[in-house]
């Protein structure tokens, strides 16, 4: 990895606690961990060998998108120690969890601790708090902190952050897809102890099967514009009919305790729920029509479009986009996107929609949608508009080199798009250009290698940013 190793003394300084007075200097900019007014990026490499422990995992923080600092469970001040196959960096999320205007970082360690050989990990989440001196270690969260017994739940396999109660700071949402049929933890909600929500929770009221993977994918967004975020929960292996793996997305309003279920069999959502479609395998939220309410993009990377599709093939892939309204997400205006209507050609191994990211890449006030097509080593960018949302006009197909280019995506506050190739351990940065209207903004000729990691570490497995897929 490029200059990722820093002397322990420097690490200790960067991770040191900061006084409350100094914390007031934080910028409030999303993903700004050190308060210097510039967005930072965190990059997971969950298969990194640490202290001789294979697949212990690491997270590289790019301060100002330049200076690299590597975090592991052996970093100074981090509780515990690196362990074999614990996958530190299985998921990432940023948010202001303590209200000090510094962005904080949550790191999933989903495979940490196993009750027996061959079992899934119990999992924990490691918090790091932002400060003017950079990230400093915080609390470790396990299932016991969420009111459940520890077990093979893979806690921390997915993470998201959002202001669920409207108090101005963010809550942390934690996926535990291996806990029975899956569960979602809510941590930090004002006036409420941390707790878990499952499909069997009374106000959710869904059938639960052990293989559903409820909570395997998470995103937050204010879909009704009331100033409080809702939680979109992907269950990509949810069995809706007799055949498994169709997938579902459940939208949770934790304040009102209301839930709504989205599948490919929901009214006005294109397609049919079929085995191994993996509806909900990726999620992203953004305001694609600039109406002040978030919209939800749902990846369906297993959807088959070409003839003679075989069971268990990867899938050509599609993406469904459901728009927000004063009453929340409305399926009546749902769009379905695939390479049948965009640049490119659908093929059964493309996995179009395996990753998603949203952000304003052209600076005109509405968000663009970036879709990963890792089987094609490509990303597709759709422009948002104020006259109907996403459009195929001027859609852009950007191809890269091997290594699953497009397997993870992130947008930055300064109109940047980061594309990961975790198979090769490489991050590519593309810059956007200010141009109002139906333009993707991103310029392929600006592509440059932002950072690289050691081979076989899955550097770039997941990223922080305005919107992430895991």
UniProtKB/TrEMBL annotation:
<dbReference type="Pfam" id="PF01839">
    <property type="entry name" value="FG-GAP"/>
</dbReference>
<keyword id="KW-0677">Repeat</keyword>
<dbReference type="InterPro" id="IPR000413">
    <property type="entry name" value="Integrin_alpha"/>
</dbReference>
<keyword id="KW-0732">Signal</keyword>
<protein>
    <recommendedName>
        <fullName>FG-GAP repeat-containing protein</fullName>
    </recommendedName>
</protein>
<dbReference type="InterPro" id="IPR013519">
    <property type="entry name" value="Int_alpha_beta-p"/>
</dbReference>
<keyword id="KW-0325">Glycoprotein</keyword>
<feature type="signal peptide">
    <location>
        <begin position="1"/>
        <end position="23"/>
    </location>
</feature>
<dbReference type="InterPro" id="IPR028994">
    <property type="entry name" value="Integrin_alpha_N"/>
</dbReference>
<dbReference type="InterPro" id="IPR013517">
    <property type="entry name" value="FG-GAP"/>
</dbReference>
<keyword id="KW-0378">Hydrolase</keyword>
């Amino acid at each position: 990895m490029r200059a990722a190793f820093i002397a322990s003394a420097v690490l200790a300084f960067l991770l040191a606690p900061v006084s409350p007075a100094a914390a007031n200097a934080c910028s409030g900019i999303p993903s700004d961990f050190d308060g210097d007014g510039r967005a930072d990026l965190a990059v997971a490499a969950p298969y990194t060998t640490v202290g001789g422990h294979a697949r212990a995992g690491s997270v590289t923080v790019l301060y100002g998108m330049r200076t690299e600092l590597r975090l592991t469970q052996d970093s100074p001040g981090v509780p515990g120690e690196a362990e074999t196959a614990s996958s530190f960096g299985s998921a990432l999320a940023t948010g202001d969890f303590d209200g000090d205007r510094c962005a904080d970082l949550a790191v999933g360690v989903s495979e940490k601790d196993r009750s027996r050989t061959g079992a899934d990990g119990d999992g924990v989440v490691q918090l790091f708090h932002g400060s003017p001196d950079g990230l400093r270690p915080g609390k470790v969260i396990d299932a016991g902190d969420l009111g459940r017994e520890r077990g093979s739940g893979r806690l921390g396999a997915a993470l998201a952050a959002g202001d669920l109660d409207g108090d101005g700071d963010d809550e942390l949402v934690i996926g535990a897809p291996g806990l029975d049929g899956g569960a979602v933890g809510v941590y930090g909600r004002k006036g409420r102890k941390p707790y878990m929500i499952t499909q069997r929770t009374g106000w959710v009221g869904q059938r639960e099967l052990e293989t559903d993977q409820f909570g395997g994918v998470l995103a937050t967004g204010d879909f009704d514009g009331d100033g409080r975020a809702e939680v979109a929960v992907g269950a990509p292996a949810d069995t809706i009919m007799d055949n498994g793996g169709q997938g579902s997305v459940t939208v949770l309003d934790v304040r009102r305790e209301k839930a709504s279920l989205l599948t490919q069999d929901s009214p006005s959502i294109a397609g049919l729920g079929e085995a191994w479609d993996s509806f909900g395998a990726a999620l992203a939220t953004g305001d694609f029509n600039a109406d002040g309410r978030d919209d939800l993009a749902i990846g369906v990377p297993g959807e088959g479009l070409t003839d003679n599709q075989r069971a268990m093939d990867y899938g050509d892939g599609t993406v469904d986009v459901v728009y927000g309204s004063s009453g929340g997400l409305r399926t009546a205006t749902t769009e379905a996107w695939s390479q049948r209507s965009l640049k490119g050609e659908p093929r059964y191994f493309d996995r179009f929609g395996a990753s998603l990211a949203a952000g304003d890449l052209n600076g005109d006030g509405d968000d663009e949608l970036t879709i990963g097509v890792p089987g094609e080593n490509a990303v597709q960018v759709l422009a948002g508009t104020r006259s109907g949302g996403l459009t195929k006009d001027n859609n852009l197909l950007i191809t890269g080199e091997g290594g699953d280019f497009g397997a993870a995506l992130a947008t930055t506050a300064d109109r940047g798009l980061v594309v990961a190739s975790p198979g090769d351990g490489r991050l590519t940065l593309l810059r956007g250009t200010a141009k109002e209207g139906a333009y993707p903004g991103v310029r392929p000729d600006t592509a440059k290698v932002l950072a690289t990691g050691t081979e076989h570490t899955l550097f770039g497995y997941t990223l922080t940013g305005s919107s992430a897929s895991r």
